[in-house]
């Protein structure tokens, strides 16, 4: 009898330990992200409970992300269709399809002619909370090919941006240690500089200032510069 009771106690402890491990562990969520045209969205950023993750959608719009078992919401951020957020509710497969396009925003006077509007990707955020803008350059225009570097292109064509020894500084962002350089992203990958990238291969440049860069957390405190090239990923 004592042996049976001891066995039941050990079994109970084992189940309890397993349950606690599952609760404290992580689960994998997969899914597919489609635009309003039902086509896959590539390089959409996956966010969990408002925090950016390193996960993005692939060429087929598929994603895979590991989250804490107590995570509540998954968000999908894109630069053409906006942002969508879904309750996780224990699901491990969540497909997202955008039904409306993000509202275009007016760009400041420093934006080149023809780039007066762009989709900022905040379709579900109240407009009164979007206090800054994104400047966008369509670098396919021939006039931009005359620049010698991406740094020169951005500094001359986007107001509020200057190039220093530490990198790009947007709207003179500073902290107690000095100027805060912008976060740089090249074709979906974080980089230290745009050196070696010729303006002739650049497709577009987006400069995110202030609130518009908040989705990148503390890394985007000094703003974000996103360069997309014409070079196709292998």
Structure write-up:
By secondary structure, this protein is mainly beta. The chain folds into 2 domains: 25-97, Immunoglobulin-like (Sandwich); 104-229, TonB-dependent receptor, plug domain (Ferric Hydroxamate Uptake Protein, Chain A, domain 1). The chain has 2 helices and 18 strands. It has helices at residues 2-24, 150-157; strands spanning 26-34, 45-48, 51-56, 62-68, 73-77, 83-87, 96-97, 104-106, 117-119, 134-138, 161-164, 167-170, 174-175, 178-179, 183-186, 189-191, 202-208, 224-229. The strands form 6 sheets. The protein has a 5-stranded mixed beta sheet, with helices on one face. The chain has a 4-stranded antiparallel beta sheet with strand order 3-2-5-6, with no helix packed on it. Strand 5 and strand 6 form a beta hairpin. Residues 18-23 and 101-132 have low confidence and may be disordered.
Tell me the total number of β-strands: 18
CA radius of gyration: 22 Å
Strand order in the largest sheet: 10-17-18-15-16
Sketch the topology as an H/E string, one letter per element.
HEEEEEEEEEEHEEEEEEEE
* First-to-last CA distance: 67 Å
- Helix count equals 2
Based on the coordinates given, report the CATH architecture of the largest domain.
Answer: Beta Complex
Q: Unreliable segments (pLDDT under 50, ≥5 consecutive)?
A: 18-23, 101-132
| Count of spatially separate domains | 2
Instruction: Determine the CATH topology of the largest domain.
Output: Ferric Hydroxamate Uptake Protein, Chain A, domain 1
Q: Strand count, sense and closure of the main sheet?
A: 5 strands, mixed
The SS-based structural class is mainly beta
- Beta-strand content bin: 25-35%
By CATH reckoning, the class of the largest domain would read Mainly Beta
Shape: globular
Write out the CATH superfamily name of the largest domain. Answer: TonB-dependent receptor, plug domain
What's the rounded overall pLDDT mean? 75
Helix content bin: 10-25%
